[in-house]
Structure formats: C-alpha cells, structure tokens
Amino acid sequence: MIVYNLTCTQNHRFEGWFASADDFARQTDSKLLTCPMCGDAGVSRLPNASYVSTGVAERAPEAQLQKDNAKQGTKHYANLAAEMLANFVDKVIENTEDVGSAFPEEARKIHYHEAPERHIRGTASLKEVAALRDEGIEVAPIPVPLHRLNKTH
Asked: pTM, whole model, 2 decimals?
C-alpha cells in the first residue's frame, strides 16, 4: 500500500491510498481520482520527504498499540476527517433550505423577524459575510464541494 499526499488545481490537499504507483497513474489518467472537497479531476502528487530510520526510537509492537488504544477507547481510521466533513455536509444539505445568492438578504430578514425562522444555506462573498457578522448575524462558511451544491436528498 502506498500513501500519497495529493492536491487539486484549487489547492485542496488530501491523502490517497493506492495499491501501487501504477494504480495511482491509472486512476489519474482515467480521471477516476477526484478531489473530495470540490470534485476536481486535476489531481497531482505533492512532494514528500522520505522517512529515514535513525534507530533512536523503536515503534511499539502492534499488540501493545492495540492494548493502549483499547484502554483509551480510541480507534484509528484513515481519512476520518474527510469522512466526517462529508457527513457534516450531508446533514447541512438535508436540514437546510438553499437560498443561493440571496443568502445575505434572507439571513437579514430572518434575523430581523421579517421572514419565518428557518435554517438556510447559500453563497455570500467574504465582504457580505463580514457585514452580516458586524450586524450580529451568526454565519459560518462551510466548504461544500461543487459537485454537491445542487444535490438534494
């Protein structure tokens, strides 16, 4: 198994696991490999430093690591952050109304009780987000990949 640090043309960084270097090349050439953040197929490898064993510290045996993890109740999964983000985005899409570019106006209407209270999502510029926050309206930017913007459940 080979692990590569990858990036897309939008400079999103992520990790990919491949059976071999040929597997990575095949997936890249076939446009099967896409960015999990934006869906961009323009994926390339990032340079990485080679690991050099200095012999200073030996890794704990696998059995000891499993015991330690069991005591702490922790589990280790590859790409957990990407999976958690994808689940979070799913929940946001499922539980909000997409108001598109009307987001700043709708957020103000809801805040000032000119529209019914509801959960909304949409797009806003950084300047619009700053203005909303200055008015005391709580907003949070969420990185929704482009291929998910029009997907509803």
From this structure: 0.45
Per-residue tokens: 19: 């059976």
Task: Express each pLDDT in 49-81 by its tens digit.
Answer: 666 666 655 555 666 656 655 555 545 455 556
Q: What is the CB neighbour count within 10 angstroms for residue 19?
A: 11
Cα distances (angstroms) measured from residue 119 to each of 69, 113, 127: 39, 14, 21
Give the torsion sign (CA, 109, 113, 115, 118): positive
Alpha carbon distance 121, 31 (integer Å): 30
Distance, in Å, from the CA atom of 6 to the CA atom of 45, rounded to the nearest integer, reads 5
Contacts of 90 (CB under 8 A, 6+ apart): 153
